[in-house]
Amino acid sequence: MNESLKDFIFAALFTAFIAVSAMITVPLGPIPFTLQTFAITLVMFIAKPKVALLSMVIYILLGAIGAPIFSSMKGGIGVLMGPTGGFLIGYLLGIFPVGLAMQKFNEKSSSTGTKIAVTIVSGIVLTLIAYVIGTVQFMVVMNQTLAVALASCVIPFMLIDLAKIIVAWILSALVKKHLN
Question: Pick from 120, 60, 122: which is nearest to 89 by CA?
Answer without folding.
Answer: 60
